[in-house]
Design brief:
Helices cover 34% and strands 25% of the residues. Bound molecules: magnesium ion (2 copies).
Length: 624
């Protein structure tokens, strides 16, 4: 199956859009008329641009309000169409896309519309072109693909076919089954778009909140499954109207678009749908993540001392020194933290830009090499830097904010990375009961969230949770979690729309997106915090409210209050959490005792955010 993207998805002027699409690897493009009208050049020049970039225009759109008119408007519509077909001839484009009429003044009637399309079909066929009919979900008479198909069927003209747009069909929850009985060669174009389930008018949702497949909630896979039954072999074209995309970088949005289609066609093929991406080799399956192998901090010499001291206070032991680099390993339970104080290389550059921070995450996956192959197939950006003699090249891709995600696995040499690259210090492990990494929380621009959701979701075998809005004293923070089914990997993505939230302040202080907090598991939170780690103070009112809301055993509230522990529960179990004071004003640690509970304490997040905001305003608040 050929993939395509509509120019309307991308920001910039026509040349910028075309170039972004070509750089992302697209070979086909849908031309939006407005992009052509605003192009500073002739149609022939636009055609030459496309040819130079290796792009074919597969459709020209939209042609609106055509069918169902009395004379003289009917003839005027045909004359208008003839002009568009002439434009298309100059562009070298052979398909005109017609949207169903939205005017209440137009007449209904399937046969009447079919006759209009028969005449339009003649006009197009006379130029060796074709037309395709799309049911807009807000069309006045035709608002459903089944009616549009009946018009096309009755027009019974070889130059008249159907457009299927996954947004219009899925957002209206239209039955997908009848798609299966449409002959594939009568479908001239398939437009693909996802969207979140929003309680809003479908036109508003369509014009502002469409997103790439895999980023929203529509049943796109079921749509593709139905489409496969038709034998359709034409292009699959992204048609996304999204305010963020139109404000974002055309190049990165185009890459995301292409990634979303590669991922979609990969899923379709695995589900037995059969269609593959003609321009893309087959991918290894999504990688199952076995756990977080390590978290690496970029530090300078001083930071190495301070962070080391803090980690020691949290029960971590300095267990290893890198064989040749100024890099140390700190361990507790199954947690490995790496402090990289090198004076050149990636971590150093990261530290210069962001200050002391998490510069890399190491994930243990089933097969690191296959994960890299999949990442490259998905247009993720591999990262390489020189390795010293005897050192391993740990494969990595670029992650959020230019950080790295490394991959290790249990079967290759990578499983021995600690033995090969680090010499033990001989220090005895002690600890305050931290056993593993529960989750990693990343702060990013709100506009980036969809992009990273797609990045993680396409590469790794993870599921996403429902998006939540969390109240920060400075505004709302949108939060979404990607996690593996067994909880081996949990990443919380936070995006702030306000500039005044903690999340936003992190972005501006940090000069970009990154890891803002790491949560470690413990089996006994009360015992863990009893070790004297300075914790974030929770106000007494929280415990009054907790007492009023939940029926907890006597004494539990008092002990939570003593230890600054926040509490939540769901149908699966209980969740106890406590936060460290923020470190260097930037990131912080969380300790969690997860007793079967599936969530992340969202109901407690505003309490935490308010406490952190107070601390940020009055950093001299006395510690207990
Ligand atoms: Mg459409
Ligand atoms: Mg391990």
């Amino acid at each position: 199956m050929r993939t395509a993207i509509a120019t309307v998805c991308l920001s910039g002027d026509l040349p910028e859009k075309l170039e972004a699409a070509a750089v992302a690897g697209f070979k086909s493009i849908e031309i939006f008329e407005n992009d052509l009208l605003t192009f500073n050049g002739t149609n022939l020049e636009a055609r030459q641009r496309m040819a130079d970039l290796g792009l074919s225009p597969i459709a020209f759109q939209p042609f609106r309000d055509f069918e169902g008119w009395d004379e003289p408007r009917r003839s005027r519509g045909l004359a208008r169409a003839a002009r568009k077909l002439d434009t298309m001839a100059e562009l070298g484009c052979g398909l005109l896309m017609v949207c169903s009429n939205v005017s209440p003044e137009a007449h209904g009637g399937i046969d009447r519309a079919a006759q209009d399309f028969r005449d339009l079909g003649d006009l197009a066929a006379g130029r060796g072109m074709r037309v395709a009919y799309e049911a807009l979900s807000w069309g006045h008479h035709v608002d459903d693909y089944r009616n549009a198909w009946e018009v096309v069927r009755r027009a019974d003209h070889p130059a008249v076919g159907l457009v299927l747009d996954s947004f219009h069909i899925c957002a209206m929850r239209t039955d997908l089954k009848p798609i299966r009985s449409i002959p594939g060669d009568r479908i001239f174009l398939v437009q693909i778009a996802d969207a979140p389930w929003l309680e809003m008018d479908v036109m508003q949702c369509s014009r502002h909140f469409r997103c790439f497949p895999g980023q929203g909630d529509l049943p796109i896979d079921a749509f593709m499954d139905a489409l496969a039954a038709t034998g359709y072999a034409g292009p699959l074209s992204l048609e996304i109207f999204n305010d963020q995309f139109r404000a974002g970088s055309a190049r990165s949005v185009a890459v995301d678009g292409r990634r979303s289609l590669i991922y979609l066609l990969d899923r379709t093929k695995r589900a037995g749908g059969g269609s593959t991406d003609e321009e893309q080799p087959a991918l290894p399956p999504q990688s199952r993540c076995l756990g977080v192998e390590f978290i690496e901090f970029a530090v300078d010499e001083k930071g190495s001392q301070t962070l080391g001291g803090l980690l020691a206070g949290m029960g971590f032991t300095h267990t290893g020194r890198h064989v040749s680099k100024d890099v140390s390993r700190w361990t507790q339970g199954a947690v490995n933290l790496v402090l990289n104080a090198e004076k050149d290389g990636f971590a150093h550059a990261y530290q210069i830009t962001h200050g002391m921070s998490v510069c890399a995450i190491g994930l243990e996956v089933e097969d690191a090499a296959a994960t890299m192959d999949r990442a490259e197939g998905l247009l993720d950006r591999p990262f390489r830097q020189p390795v010293g003699p005897g050192e391993l090249e740990v494969p990595a891709v670029r992650g959020l904010g230019g950080s790295l995600i490394y991959f290790t696995d249990p079967t290759s040499k990578l499983s021995r990375v600690w033995d090969i690259e680090f010499r033990p210090t001989g220090a005895q492990m002690a600890g305050i009961g931290l056993t593993g990494v529960d989750h990693i929380s990343q702060s990013m621009q709100y506009e980036e969230m969809l992009s990273w959701l797609l990045f993680y979701g396409s590469l790794l075998d993870v599921e996403k949770t429902k998006e939540l809005d969390i109240a920060d004293p400075g505004g709302l923070v949108r939060s979404q979690v990607i996690q593996s089914r067994d909880g081996a990997l949990r990443i919380v993505l936070n995006g702030s729309q306000s500039l005044r939230t903690q999340s936003a302040r992190f972005l501006s202080d940090f000069f970009g997106s990154g890891v803002q907090h790491i949560a470690f598991n413990t089996d006994d939170l009360s015992a863990t915090v009893a070790n004297g780690v300075p914790m974030l103070q929770v106000p007494a009112t929280y415990y009054d409210d907790l007492d009023a809301r939940l029926d907890l055993a006597p004494g539990r509230i008092e002990s939570f209050a003593r230890d600054n522990i926040l509490y939540d529960r769901d149908e699966h179990g209980e969740y106890l959490q406590a936060y460290s004071q923020s470190f260097d004003g930037m990131f912080f640690f969380e300790f969690v005792e997860r007793r079967g509970y599936k969530g992340f304490g969202a109901s407690n997040a505003p309490i935490r955010l308010a406490a952190q905001a107070r601390l940020a305003r009055h950093p001299a608040v006395p510690r207990r």
